[in-house]
Amino acid sequence: MKRLTLALFALGLVTVAVTCLLAERPAARAAAGRTPVLATRVAVAFDRSPPLSSMEQFIPDKAVVIHPAVESLPARQGATEGPGTGLGATPPTPPAARGGAAGARAGGRAGQGGTGPGRAARAGGPPPIPPPPAAPEISAAGAAVEQTTQGARAAIEPAASFDGLGEGFTGHEFPGAANATDANAGRGGAGRGGIDISLAVGPNHIFEILNGNMAVFTKKGKKYPTTGKLLYGAVPNNTVFAGFGLRCGVSNNSDSVVRYDQLADRWLIVVPVFAQPAPFAMCYAVSATPDPLGPYYRYEFQRPLFPDYPRPAVWPDGYYNPTSTSDNLLPEVITQKHDCIADRNKMLKGLPATEQCVVIDGGVFMLNTDVDGKRLPPAGAPNIMMSTGGTQLMKIFEDDGIYFYKVHVDWNDASKTTVSTPQKIAVAPYHYLCDGQLSNCVSQPGTERRLDSQGDKLIQRLVYRNFGDHESILAEHSVATAAQGGGVRWYEFRLNKQRDPVLYQQATYAPGGFYRWLGSLAMDRKGDIGMGYSFGGDPNYPGQRFAARMANDPKGQLTFHESVLAEGQASQTGSLRWEDYTDIIVDPSDDCTFWYVGNYLKSGAESSTTRIGSFMAPGCK
Q: In angstroms, what CA-CA distances link 228 with 171, 234, 290, 507?
């Protein structure tokens, strides 16, 4: 992620103020000596539970403000279909400005991983390493949902496991690769791990993005005999936009995301443009065929606001793409987020398409529901958007709710596109792990340098799955634990008749202490849940693990003993930045196999390598 402090939030938008009631904070309740009641309710055919809390707000004395939807300005320059005869036949785009990333990092993360503790070099030597935040006291209600022992079932062995992009990656597969001179292609950067990780899996291919580079690998199946063979890459992310757009074809950037749209058997690549001067841009590429190495339909939309941290999600009526203006305090509004929707159905056909954006002042990092499986939500169903509570910028690190919005897009009339006011779902109280993002958090052997936890937000994806008799949504975030370590708080919500998400089960996965953080959660076609996450804490080097549960297991329990995907072999000393997000997804070929990617360091390495692996819950075939 990159951050800018921008005063563009008032640009040509008419403000619609939503007057909200201040949500009561767990800290205040604790001070009053009252223990919050946990609201774990089953979503039944007719929901008899009390009404959910109405409008909520996150910043004291500041109402959430939801602006009207505005169409982004398209930039149509060059051929929509490209690059050339296809991505696999396209050499890397010549080096260019990295989307203004250097300036964005310096401007947006001063003192917090930009020119601050996340940087290893500065005039006069490296900056001092700050102490970690004090461990908070966890309430009895928060501790009550912690799973502190391993599941009794035997650990699941990885079915596939191979190193992807990052430190040590030397693969070059593209036209002219024999003459490639970029020794850093596909690497996370000297002394700094690749923090922006994205993974997509189709019937025959595995597509990975790490920071500013992308690569495509084989997946064993009908087309290829093995998994993990490099087919294309590593090339800059904007190679797919070669010869197209005003900004997309010439500005490369990290924070890019790849998705496989299994509803259409297509691939989606999203690349933000952070380069100054504004306007900024969001670039979409949708494959014209099921082949990720073939041609793409390409779109560029100008954005007046800095489009940080895009997390695109697939929904039948659009590609929903939440972004953020800044990590720093913005005058008057404090925080500012956006939910933008691109016209998926027109993009799939290569037709002229539009993007609509709704700006939300006073919100927290949001995720939109992302469809897994081929059973669609009911026709016209709104997309559900969720966030944690709290506000790190105001030093509000605790809450006892997950908050949701309902988003409806109208492609005929943007004035009829709506985002509902946020509503609270009561959950067990939580405290952001290490008080949120960009803090010196997870301990490592042999160094004072600790790793960032990104504890202030839900981590992708916000998974939606329709089982016919019920519809589930999965969410997770990193929280502090009673053992003064870190755990992954995870939830399953189910939709009631009013299409409100209701808490079905929750837990904080924290067996044996230490740190488990930056989790990613998914559900197979039988309702089994798989979760991948980072594992660490002195004396353990940071690495990657996963755990799982069966659909009918006791609620709130990952019943399989955790498995090791990548055992860490070294500490990361050059930066606190570890991962801004990670990914677990379900293989569309069988709707059973979980694929996961995350960072680890090899012995002697200065920067991290990604490990890509798969596993399956027994009985799902």
A: 12, 14, 19, 34
Q: Locate tokens 């090791």: which residue?
A: 564
Residue ranges with strand state E in 229-346: 230-236, 257-261, 266-273, 280-287, 296-303, 313-315, 318-324, 336-342
Coil vs helix vs strand at 412: coil
- Calculate the CA dihedral of residues 9, 11, 13, 19 and round it to 10 degrees: 30
Residue 395 CB-density burial (10 A; 0-12 exposed, 13-18 middle, 19+ buried): exposed
Report the C-alpha gap between 604 and 87 in whole angstroms: 35
Which two structure tokens, joined as six digits, stand for 278? Answer: 């504004």
10-residue block means of pLDDT along the chain (621 residues)? Answer: 41 36 38 34 33 65 92 95 97 62 34 33 70 94 98 98 94 85 51 80 97 96 97 95 94 95 98 88 98 98 95 98 91 92 98 97 96 96 97 94 97 97 97 94 96 95 97 98 97 97 98 95 98 98 98 98 98 93 95 98 94 96 80
Q: How far apart are CA 106 and CA 115, in angstroms?
A: 6
The sign of the dihedral angle between the CA atoms of 491, 366, 591, 617 is: negative
Query: CA-CA distance, 357 to 69, in Å (whole number)?
Result: 5
> How far, in Å, CA of 188 to CA of 267, rounded?
24
What's at 384, amino acid-wise? I
Cite the DSSP H helix spans in 32-143.
Answer: 101-108, 140-143
Kindly report the number of other CB atoms within 10 A of residue 426's CB atom: 18
Q: Is 85 exposed, middle or buried (0-12, 13-18, 19+ CB in 10 A)?
A: exposed
Name the token pair of 106. 């310096």
CA gyration radius, the chain: 22
Peptide bond into 234 cis (omega under 30): yes
Residue 336 CA to residue 62 CA, distance in Å, equals 12
Burial-class residue 24 by CB neighbours within 10 Å (0-12, 13-18, 19+): middle
Rounded Cα gap, residues 425 and 493, in angstroms:
10
Partnered with residue 66 across adjacent β-strands are 360
CB 512, CB 481: distance < 8 Å: no
Spatial distance between the Cα atoms of 307 and 255, rounded to a whole number of angstroms: 10
Distance CA 199, CA 43 (A): 32
Question: 3-state DSSP call for residue 89?
Answer: helix
- Residue 226: its H or E element: none
| Tally of helices (H runs) and strands (E runs) in the chain | 4, 38
Pairing of strands 21-22, 53-57: parallel
The residue type found at 420 is S
CA-angle at 586, arms to 584 and 589, nearest 5°: 150
68, 13 Cβ separation under 8 angstroms? yes
Alpha-helical segments (H) within 475-612: none
Write down the pTM of the prediction. 0.89
Token pair in block for residue 1: 């992620």
Q: Which two tokens stand for residue 371?
A: 């469809």
Concatenated DSSP letters of 121-133: --TTSPPPPPPPP
